[in-house]
Amino acid sequence: MLCKNWQKVFFIFCVLTFVSFSQAAPCYDGFDLKPHLYFKDLDNDGLYNYEDPDIDGDGVLNFLDIDACNKDVVGEDKDQDGILDHLDFEVFGKRKNHITSQMISIQKEFWNNGIYIIEKEKEWKEEELQWIVDEVLQRLQHFNIRNFILVKEEGRKGQFGRFRPQERAIFITAHPRLSEQNCFQATLVHEFFHLYSKEYPKTYEDFYKYVGWLLIEKDGKTLYQYGDDQFSTEDFAKKKKYIDEKIQSNDFPSSYSKLGPKEMFSEVAAASFMLFKNVPTDQGKICKTYDLNSFQSSSAFEWFSHNLSGI
Ligand SMILES: [Ca+2]
Ligand SMILES: [Ca+2]
Ligand SMILES: [Ca+2]
Ligand SMILES: [Ca+2]
Fold first, then answer.
1. Which pTM does this prediction carry?
2. Distance (Å) from CA 73 to ligand 2 centroid
3. For residue range 159-173, what is the model confidence (pLDDT) as tens digits?
4. Lesser CB count within 10 Å: N end or C end of the chain?
Protein backbone atom coordinates (compact mmCIF):
# COMPACT_ATOMS: atom_id res chain seq x y z
CA MET A 1 0.00 0.00 0.00
CA LEU A 2 2.76 2.36 1.03
CA CYS A 3 4.64 1.49 -2.12
CA LYS A 4 1.56 2.17 -4.20
CA ASN A 5 1.18 5.58 -2.56
CA TRP A 6 4.81 6.41 -3.26
CA GLN A 7 4.30 5.55 -6.92
CA LYS A 8 1.38 7.95 -6.93
CA VAL A 9 3.43 10.68 -5.23
CA PHE A 10 6.27 10.10 -7.68
CA PHE A 11 3.85 10.34 -10.61
CA ILE A 12 2.44 13.63 -9.34
CA PHE A 13 5.98 14.91 -8.72
CA CYS A 14 6.91 14.04 -12.32
CA VAL A 15 3.83 15.78 -13.71
CA LEU A 16 4.50 18.89 -11.61
CA THR A 17 8.15 18.95 -12.61
CA PHE A 18 7.20 18.63 -16.26
CA VAL A 19 4.63 21.40 -15.96
CA SER A 20 6.99 23.79 -14.20
CA PHE A 21 9.75 22.97 -16.70
CA SER A 22 7.38 23.68 -19.58
CA GLN A 23 6.46 27.01 -18.04
CA ALA A 24 10.12 27.80 -17.57
CA ALA A 25 10.90 27.08 -21.22
CA PRO A 26 12.82 30.08 -22.55
CA CYS A 27 10.87 32.47 -24.76
CA TYR A 28 13.97 33.21 -26.81
CA ASP A 29 15.65 31.44 -29.70
CA GLY A 30 19.23 32.49 -29.12
CA PHE A 31 19.07 36.29 -29.06
CA ASP A 32 15.65 36.53 -30.66
CA LEU A 33 12.28 36.55 -29.00
CA LYS A 34 10.03 33.85 -30.41
CA PRO A 35 7.84 35.60 -33.02
CA HIS A 36 4.47 34.50 -31.64
CA LEU A 37 5.29 36.47 -28.45
CA TYR A 38 6.05 39.82 -30.15
CA PHE A 39 2.67 41.47 -29.83
CA LYS A 40 1.69 40.21 -26.41
CA ASP A 41 2.21 42.18 -23.21
CA LEU A 42 3.01 39.60 -20.57
CA ASP A 43 3.42 41.99 -17.62
CA ASN A 44 0.66 44.39 -18.73
CA ASP A 45 2.90 47.45 -18.48
CA GLY A 46 1.73 48.81 -21.83
CA LEU A 47 4.85 47.72 -23.71
CA TYR A 48 4.61 44.83 -26.13
CA ASN A 49 7.03 42.03 -25.35
CA TYR A 50 9.18 42.83 -28.39
CA GLU A 51 9.85 46.36 -27.08
CA ASP A 52 9.99 45.54 -23.36
CA PRO A 53 13.47 45.17 -21.80
CA ASP A 54 11.85 43.24 -18.91
CA ILE A 55 9.09 41.18 -20.47
CA ASP A 56 7.87 39.45 -17.30
CA GLY A 57 8.26 42.52 -15.07
CA ASP A 58 10.37 40.80 -12.38
CA GLY A 59 12.98 43.58 -12.43
CA VAL A 60 15.62 41.55 -14.28
CA LEU A 61 16.46 42.46 -17.89
CA ASN A 62 15.54 39.79 -20.45
CA PHE A 63 19.10 38.78 -21.31
CA LEU A 64 20.00 38.44 -17.63
CA ASP A 65 16.81 36.61 -16.68
CA ILE A 66 17.16 32.83 -16.82
CA ASP A 67 13.53 32.77 -17.89
CA ALA A 68 12.50 36.10 -19.40
CA CYS A 69 8.84 35.07 -19.57
CA ASN A 70 8.33 33.85 -16.02
CA LYS A 71 8.29 36.44 -13.26
CA ASP A 72 8.85 33.76 -10.60
CA VAL A 73 12.14 32.62 -12.11
CA VAL A 74 15.20 34.85 -12.50
CA GLY A 75 18.04 32.47 -11.66
CA GLU A 76 19.93 31.99 -8.42
CA ASP A 77 22.77 33.89 -6.83
CA LYS A 78 24.11 31.26 -4.45
CA ASP A 79 27.38 33.04 -3.68
CA GLN A 80 25.44 36.26 -3.06
CA ASP A 81 27.80 38.53 -4.93
CA GLY A 82 24.92 40.24 -6.75
CA ILE A 83 25.61 38.44 -10.05
CA LEU A 84 23.14 35.75 -11.08
CA ASP A 85 25.16 32.53 -11.09
CA HIS A 86 24.27 31.48 -14.64
CA LEU A 87 26.05 34.66 -15.80
CA ASP A 88 28.63 34.89 -13.02
CA PHE A 89 32.23 34.43 -14.20
CA GLU A 90 32.99 32.75 -10.87
CA VAL A 91 30.77 30.98 -8.36
CA PHE A 92 32.43 29.64 -5.17
CA GLY A 93 35.82 29.52 -6.92
CA LYS A 94 34.48 27.68 -9.96
CA ARG A 95 35.04 29.40 -13.29
CA LYS A 96 35.06 28.60 -16.97
CA ASN A 97 38.47 27.75 -18.51
CA HIS A 98 39.10 31.02 -20.28
CA ILE A 99 38.00 33.24 -17.38
CA THR A 100 40.93 34.85 -15.55
CA SER A 101 40.90 36.44 -12.10
CA GLN A 102 41.20 39.84 -13.78
CA MET A 103 38.02 39.16 -15.80
CA ILE A 104 36.18 38.13 -12.63
CA SER A 105 37.04 41.38 -10.89
CA ILE A 106 36.09 43.44 -13.96
CA GLN A 107 32.68 41.77 -14.16
CA LYS A 108 32.07 42.38 -10.44
CA GLU A 109 33.24 45.99 -10.54
CA PHE A 110 30.76 46.97 -13.21
CA TRP A 111 27.86 44.67 -12.39
CA ASN A 112 27.01 46.50 -9.23
CA ASN A 113 27.04 49.77 -11.17
CA GLY A 114 24.42 48.46 -13.59
CA ILE A 115 26.79 47.58 -16.44
CA TYR A 116 26.41 43.90 -17.10
CA ILE A 117 29.21 42.16 -18.95
CA ILE A 118 27.94 38.72 -19.91
CA GLU A 119 28.77 35.84 -22.22
CA LYS A 120 26.22 34.03 -24.31
CA GLU A 121 27.40 33.09 -27.77
CA LYS A 122 31.09 34.05 -27.76
CA GLU A 123 33.75 34.38 -25.10
CA TRP A 124 35.32 37.68 -24.13
CA LYS A 125 39.10 37.91 -24.14
CA GLU A 126 40.86 39.35 -21.13
CA GLU A 127 42.48 42.10 -23.23
CA GLU A 128 39.09 43.16 -24.57
CA LEU A 129 37.66 43.59 -21.09
CA GLN A 130 40.81 45.48 -20.15
CA TRP A 131 40.34 47.83 -23.13
CA ILE A 132 36.77 48.43 -22.03
CA VAL A 133 37.76 49.19 -18.47
CA ASP A 134 40.92 51.19 -19.08
CA GLU A 135 39.57 53.75 -21.45
CA VAL A 136 35.94 53.32 -22.33
CA LEU A 137 33.72 52.57 -19.37
CA GLN A 138 35.33 55.11 -17.09
CA ARG A 139 34.53 57.78 -19.65
CA LEU A 140 31.07 56.49 -20.44
CA GLN A 141 30.13 56.42 -16.77
CA HIS A 142 30.15 60.23 -16.83
CA PHE A 143 27.00 60.05 -18.93
CA ASN A 144 25.07 58.45 -16.14
CA ILE A 145 23.50 55.65 -18.11
CA ARG A 146 22.86 52.53 -16.08
CA ASN A 147 21.42 49.12 -16.70
CA PHE A 148 22.80 48.02 -19.98
CA ILE A 149 24.32 44.78 -21.13
CA LEU A 150 27.54 44.12 -22.97
CA VAL A 151 27.55 40.85 -24.82
CA LYS A 152 29.85 39.32 -27.39
CA GLU A 153 28.49 37.52 -30.43
CA GLU A 154 29.71 35.93 -33.63
CA GLY A 155 28.15 38.68 -35.77
CA ARG A 156 27.03 38.70 -39.36
CA LYS A 157 29.58 39.17 -42.09
CA GLY A 158 31.30 42.52 -41.87
CA GLN A 159 29.43 43.64 -38.79
CA PHE A 160 31.38 45.11 -35.85
CA GLY A 161 28.59 45.66 -33.38
CA ARG A 162 24.93 46.44 -32.90
CA PHE A 163 22.60 47.84 -30.31
CA ARG A 164 19.22 46.39 -29.42
CA PRO A 165 17.14 48.98 -27.53
CA GLN A 166 14.51 46.42 -26.52
CA GLU A 167 17.16 44.49 -24.57
CA ARG A 168 19.33 47.43 -23.55
CA ALA A 169 22.09 45.32 -25.05
CA ILE A 170 25.26 46.33 -26.85
CA PHE A 171 26.69 43.52 -28.95
CA ILE A 172 30.32 43.42 -29.94
CA THR A 173 31.20 40.89 -32.62
CA ALA A 174 34.18 38.61 -33.04
CA HIS A 175 35.18 40.41 -36.29
CA PRO A 176 38.96 40.03 -36.79
CA ARG A 177 39.48 43.79 -37.20
CA LEU A 178 38.33 44.28 -33.62
CA SER A 179 41.55 42.67 -32.44
CA GLU A 180 42.90 46.21 -32.93
CA GLN A 181 42.34 48.20 -29.76
CA ASN A 182 41.17 51.40 -31.50
CA CYS A 183 38.62 49.57 -33.65
CA PHE A 184 37.29 47.66 -30.69
CA GLN A 185 36.93 50.75 -28.51
CA ALA A 186 35.46 52.87 -31.32
CA THR A 187 32.84 50.17 -31.92
CA LEU A 188 31.84 50.12 -28.29
CA VAL A 189 31.59 53.91 -28.13
CA HIS A 190 29.55 53.94 -31.35
CA GLU A 191 27.02 51.42 -29.99
CA PHE A 192 26.90 53.13 -26.60
CA PHE A 193 25.88 56.40 -28.25
CA HIS A 194 22.91 54.70 -29.88
CA LEU A 195 21.78 53.97 -26.33
CA TYR A 196 22.66 57.53 -25.30
CA SER A 197 20.54 59.04 -28.11
CA LYS A 198 17.55 57.04 -26.84
CA GLU A 199 18.04 58.21 -23.25
CA TYR A 200 18.77 61.82 -24.14
CA PRO A 201 16.71 62.54 -27.28
CA LYS A 202 16.97 66.30 -26.82
CA THR A 203 20.78 66.31 -26.90
CA TYR A 204 20.70 64.05 -29.95
CA GLU A 205 18.20 66.36 -31.65
CA ASP A 206 20.37 69.41 -30.86
CA PHE A 207 23.27 67.61 -32.50
CA TYR A 208 21.62 66.60 -35.75
CA LYS A 209 20.01 69.99 -36.21
CA TYR A 210 23.33 71.71 -35.54
CA VAL A 211 25.17 69.65 -38.17
CA GLY A 212 22.44 70.23 -40.72
CA TRP A 213 19.99 67.31 -40.83
CA LEU A 214 16.28 67.95 -41.19
CA LEU A 215 13.68 65.29 -40.52
CA ILE A 216 10.61 65.60 -42.72
CA GLU A 217 7.37 63.63 -42.44
CA LYS A 218 5.95 62.80 -45.87
CA ASP A 219 3.15 60.30 -46.56
CA GLY A 220 3.63 58.73 -43.15
CA LYS A 221 7.36 58.22 -43.73
CA THR A 222 10.34 60.06 -42.28
CA LEU A 223 12.69 61.55 -44.84
CA TYR A 224 16.14 62.78 -43.91
CA GLN A 225 17.30 65.96 -45.59
CA TYR A 226 20.90 67.07 -45.76
CA GLY A 227 21.61 70.15 -47.89
CA ASP A 228 19.23 69.93 -50.82
CA ASP A 229 19.05 66.16 -50.80
CA GLN A 230 16.40 63.98 -49.22
CA PHE A 231 16.98 60.35 -48.33
CA SER A 232 14.69 57.61 -47.07
CA THR A 233 15.61 54.72 -44.79
CA GLU A 234 15.60 52.49 -47.90
CA ASP A 235 18.09 54.83 -49.59
CA PHE A 236 20.46 54.45 -46.64
CA ALA A 237 20.28 50.68 -47.08
CA LYS A 238 20.51 50.56 -50.86
CA LYS A 239 22.37 53.64 -52.08
CA LYS A 240 25.36 53.76 -49.75
CA LYS A 241 27.89 54.51 -52.46
CA TYR A 242 25.74 57.21 -54.05
CA ILE A 243 25.19 58.91 -50.66
CA ASP A 244 28.89 58.63 -49.80
CA GLU A 245 29.77 60.57 -52.94
CA LYS A 246 26.89 63.00 -52.63
CA ILE A 247 27.59 64.15 -49.06
CA GLN A 248 30.90 65.96 -48.74
CA SER A 249 31.75 67.55 -45.40
CA ASN A 250 34.44 66.97 -42.80
CA ASP A 251 31.62 66.77 -40.21
CA PHE A 252 31.31 63.15 -41.34
CA PRO A 253 34.29 61.19 -40.01
CA SER A 254 33.50 58.07 -42.07
CA SER A 255 31.39 56.85 -44.98
CA TYR A 256 29.15 55.02 -42.54
CA SER A 257 28.37 58.27 -40.73
CA LYS A 258 26.53 59.50 -43.82
CA LEU A 259 23.78 56.94 -43.38
CA GLY A 260 21.50 59.27 -41.45
CA PRO A 261 21.67 61.35 -38.26
CA LYS A 262 21.65 58.34 -35.90
CA GLU A 263 24.71 56.76 -37.45
CA MET A 264 26.37 60.15 -37.75
CA PHE A 265 25.87 60.87 -34.04
CA SER A 266 27.42 57.53 -33.08
CA GLU A 267 30.27 57.84 -35.56
CA VAL A 268 31.05 61.39 -34.46
CA ALA A 269 31.10 60.13 -30.86
CA ALA A 270 33.52 57.34 -31.79
CA ALA A 271 35.81 59.66 -33.77
CA SER A 272 35.71 62.33 -31.02
CA PHE A 273 36.57 59.68 -28.44
CA MET A 274 39.67 58.75 -30.43
CA LEU A 275 40.72 62.39 -30.73
CA PHE A 276 40.22 62.93 -26.99
CA LYS A 277 42.47 59.99 -26.28
CA ASN A 278 45.08 61.32 -28.70
CA VAL A 279 45.05 58.65 -31.37
CA PRO A 280 47.49 59.91 -34.07
CA THR A 281 45.67 61.72 -36.87
CA ASP A 282 48.40 61.56 -39.52
CA GLN A 283 48.56 57.82 -40.09
CA GLY A 284 45.79 57.33 -42.61
CA LYS A 285 42.34 56.12 -41.79
CA ILE A 286 41.96 54.58 -38.34
CA CYS A 287 40.32 51.15 -38.56
CA LYS A 288 40.31 51.73 -42.33
CA THR A 289 37.26 53.86 -41.57
CA TYR A 290 37.83 57.10 -39.68
CA ASP A 291 39.49 60.12 -41.28
CA LEU A 292 40.50 61.85 -38.06
CA ASN A 293 42.79 64.26 -39.85
CA SER A 294 39.99 66.15 -41.57
CA PHE A 295 37.46 65.50 -38.81
CA GLN A 296 39.54 67.20 -36.10
CA SER A 297 38.85 70.65 -37.59
CA SER A 298 35.12 70.00 -38.15
CA SER A 299 32.23 71.79 -36.49
CA ALA A 300 30.76 68.40 -35.51
CA PHE A 301 33.85 67.74 -33.39
CA GLU A 302 33.63 71.23 -31.96
CA TRP A 303 29.99 70.57 -30.98
CA PHE A 304 30.94 67.30 -29.34
CA SER A 305 33.89 68.83 -27.48
CA HIS A 306 31.61 71.56 -26.18
CA ASN A 307 28.52 69.49 -25.30
CA LEU A 308 29.72 65.97 -24.53
CA SER A 309 33.30 66.54 -23.54
CA GLY A 310 33.14 63.87 -20.84
CA ILE A 311 34.01 61.33 -23.45
CA1 LIG B 1 5.21 44.49 -21.26
CA1 LIG C 1 12.63 39.77 -16.35
CA1 LIG D 1 11.95 35.90 -15.05
CA1 LIG E 1 26.69 34.95 -8.10
1. 0.88
2. 8
3. 999 999 999 999 999
4. N
